[in-house]
Amino acid sequence: MAEKNNLEDDINKMADEAKTTASEFAQGAKETFASEDNKKVLAGVLAILLGALGIHKFILGYTKEGVIMLVATLVLTVFTCGIAGWLMGVIGLIEGIIYLTKSDADFYNTYQVGKKPWF
Question: Residue ranges of the TM2 domain (predicted)?
Fold first, then answer.
């Protein structure tokens, strides 16, 4: 009987620890995704991975530039035998590296406050 009580106590402690950990994780995620730094990391990673599609431009609020990259990749690639898509991918890669190497304050001032759409 004592073993059963100890086992139940251990299970309850583990459940409480799991709830606490999940709560701390959720709070940390909320803080991360609410911060301005999140746009930097998200835009940088998307620029590197999906830069040819211009998704990072949409994340930063540059709709016109995002549409330009998307159209250049999807439409002009057909007419240029893939060169336009490749070029947009290189531009995205370069922008992603630039985004991720800037300091948080510099990125925020340049791309979110200053609204600098290219490089």
Answer: 37-83
